[in-house]
């Protein structure tokens, strides 16, 4: 079977045409990524809640189309399936590509974090005074919260606490200031 018969005869043109266009768009997307472009023509809106819907973006459509086209063509030519059976086979392969893309986006989203720590999470932890706390005012302390060392503004309820003194966090105020006592 020559290339003409393999790719263009008996309805194979539908599989090949869609697969070829999707593959070209995929190559263009990758090239744009390497050149510093958006790579997906999808502007980042800053909203992380839409991560699951990125599979419906250009990347999702291109991935599904590549899977449907190449999977359908492979089934049509190598498994001797009818065109509708091959289209269904391509649908399964395209859906698998879409699912893999969703897993990739989910994994990337799970790697992100805003880095913010709720000051209430520091209550009960022990740390060190980094900037002395005067009896009338605030200083700074360093504590480990969620396996991360953080610095907070701190007060000691009318007691002066020197730098490098071990402290324990006893309360949190609404403005993020922590109340401490010597440990």
Give the helices and strands as they follow along the chain: HHHHEEEEE
**Mean pLDDT score, rounded?**
85
Find the structural class using helix and strand composition.
Answer: alpha+beta
Beta-strand portion reads: 15-25%
Task: Tell me the helix content.
Answer: 40-55%
Largest sheet data: 5 strands, mixed, barrel
Rg calculated over all Cα atoms: 29 Å
Question: Which runs of at least 5 residues are low in confidence (pLDDT < 50)?
Answer: 41-49
Identify the overall geometry: rod-shaped
Report how far the terminal alpha carbons are from each other.
83 Å
Q: Strand order within the widest sheet?
A: 1-2-3-5-4
What does this structure look like?
The chain folds into two domains: 3-111, no CATH class; 119-182, Nucleic acid-binding proteins (OB fold (Dihydrolipoamide Acetyltransferase, E2P)). By secondary structure, it is of the alpha+beta class. 43% of the residues lie in helices and 18% in strands.
Summarize the structure.
The chain is an alpha+beta fold.
Q: How would you summarize the topology of this molecule?
A:
Elements: H1 3-8, H2 12-34, H3 58-78, H4 83-111, E1 126-131, E2 139-145, E3 148-155, E4 166-172, E5 178-182
Parallel strand pairs: 3-5
Antiparallel strand pairs: 1-2, 1-4, 2-3, 4-5
Give the tags.
183 residues; alpha+beta; OB fold (Dihydrolipoamide Acetyltransferase, E2P)
